[in-house]
Design a protein that fits this description.
- This protein has 15 helices and five strands.
- It is of the alpha+beta class and about 425 residues long.
- It folds into three domains: about 90 residues; about 130 residues, Beta-Lactamase, CATH 3.30.450.40; about 160 residues, Hypothetical protein af1432.
- A five-stranded antiparallel β-sheet has the order 2-1-5-4-3, with helices on both faces.
- The N and C termini lie far apart (about 80 Å).
- Bound molecules: fe (ii) ion (FE2).
- The site of fe (ii) ion (FE2) has 5 residues, from loops.
Length: about 425
């Protein structure tokens, strides 16, 4: 093949007008053309053959023959025109389906992102980011209103220069958010001069609108389409659920944090001789947990278990605490107390096993090695270290070297060797 032909071919494929009318380019076009060919072209050709064979020979007048040919050609042109209209409408439908599919995929992605949020702040930031994606906006804001402040105020912004833009047109956007909340429906405003296009959709709450999502697009861009308004309204519904979930989770964390604080204070007062012990064990366990690479969920479990590891002591009076036979029951008592609380169910086994020994000679179950939950093995090391190196009403504190020597003397019997080594590294690094 000559070199010029090789150069022409790709260009001809990409520019049909230059190298001939390109009637079809993809699968759907080819299907449409096939339907047109079988339904219109074949019958037309057959008609032309019939006319040429049987009708024209019988006509004597030249004008009659030309008239018949003109009718056949007109029918052919009409058929071709119908095909082109059909092709155009098919392409439009395809393009709309493609956009809807893209929007649906975006909303699914958004839904997954919002379902995973843990805090209200995560929910507001994620919703503002998602608004950019759903509407192809240049800036998006999430505004919330509360019982104390019924006027919506910006809680999160997304998009380059979004904060600066809010300083310029924030009051107008807040008014739109307010209107959307009052009317419980979207408010759309087209650009005027330098003022950008904007949409505000309300965030539905249980009893009232809790805020609004506002999306902004520069004045030079096309106005928001109705599908974009619908997409943003769907996002607002998803964001509302995420905000309520985030608020519920924040409330739970707040409740557990303060209730734990109250329990730990009561425990310190009840024991009377190890003031601050639970708090210190929790701090040590947190450092250990991060060193050995526990994930956030395990770290949270470890934190509560370390704070509450001796909670069972609350059920023992002073004489029972001083008697080893009855004192040992605090692990069982503690795990029973926590096991009844659904959100602390995972913490109960750690508290249950925090006095097991690595060689199986501990209590209450005498399990050994990795049978003992990892968090319980971590607490065992931290508990022993704090007990040895803190002064109490009945003993003086060991030095760091003495404490390390004691831990290392109990490797393989009482403690997990790997964890003692990790703990020693923290002590040597000055982190304990
Ligand atoms: Fe204990």
């Amino acid at each position: 093949m000559p070199p010029t032909m090789r150069r022409l071919r790709p260009a001809a494929a990409g520019n049909g007008m230059k190298y001939g009318l390109r009637l079809f380019s993809d699968k759907l076009d080819r299907l449409t053309f096939s339907a047109y060919f079988l339904g219109a072209v074949v019958p037309l050709v057959a008609l032309a053959v019939v006319v040429e064979r049987f009708a024209l020979p019988t006509m004597s007048a030249r004008n009659d023959a030309l008239g018949l040919i003109a009718v056949v050609v007109s029918a052919a042109m009409l058929s071709l025109g119908s095909y082109l209209v059909l092709r155009r409408s098919t392409r439009r439908t395809l393009s709309r389906m493609d956009r809807d599919n893209h929007r649906l995929t975006s909303l699914l992605r958004v839904s997954t992102r919002l379902a995973g949020v843990q805090h209200v702040t995560d929910a507001t930031d994620t919703a503002a980011q998602c608004a950019l994606e759903v509407t192809s906006s240049s800036a998006a804001y999430l505004c919330v209103a509360g019982a104390e402040n019924p006027e919506p105020a910006m809680a999160a912004a997304a998009g380059e220069g979004a904060t600066k833009l809010y300083e310029q047109v924030g009051s107008e956007l807040a008014s739109m958010a307010s209107f959307a909340m009052e009317g419980a429906r979207p408010v759309v405003r087209e650009a005027q001069g330098e003022t950008p296009h904007a949409i505000a959709v309300p965030l539905p709450g249980e009893r009232r609108q809790i805020g609004a999502i506002v999306a902004v697009r520069t004045a030079s861009a096309p106005p928001f389409a109705s599908e974009e308004v619908d997409g943003l309204a769907t996002l607002a519904a998803l964001a509302s659920v995420a905000l309520l979930n985030g608020d519920l989770r924040d409330s739970q964390r707040n409740f557990f944090s303060h209730v734990t604080d109250i329990i730990v204070t009561a425990l310190d007062a009840h024991l009377g001789f190890h003031e601050g012990h639970s708090e210190r064990v929790a701090q040590l366990a947190n450092r250990m947990g991060r060193t050995i690479g526990l994930d956030d969920e395990a770290l949270q479990r470890l934190h509560f278990a370390a704070l509450l590891h001796d909670i069972g002591m609350l059920k023992l009076d002073r004489s029972q605490q001083m008697n080893p036979r009855t004192c040992d029951k605090h692990t069982l008592l503690g795990s029973r107390m926590l096991g009844r609380i659904r959100l602390w169910k995972d913490v109960a086994p750690i508290v249950h096993h925090h006095h097991e020994w690595f060689d199986g000679s501990g209590y209450p179950d005498g399990i050994a090695g990795e049978e003992i939950p990892l968090e319980a093995r971590v607490i065992a090391v931290c508990d022993a270290w704090d007990t040895m190196t803190s002064e109490s009403s009945y003993k003086s504190a060991m030095t760091r070297d003495e404490g390390i020597a004691e831990l290392e003397a109990c490797i393989e019997t009482q403690f997990d060797p790997e964890l003692v080594r990790a703990f020693r590294a923290l002590v040597d690094a000055g982190e304990v």
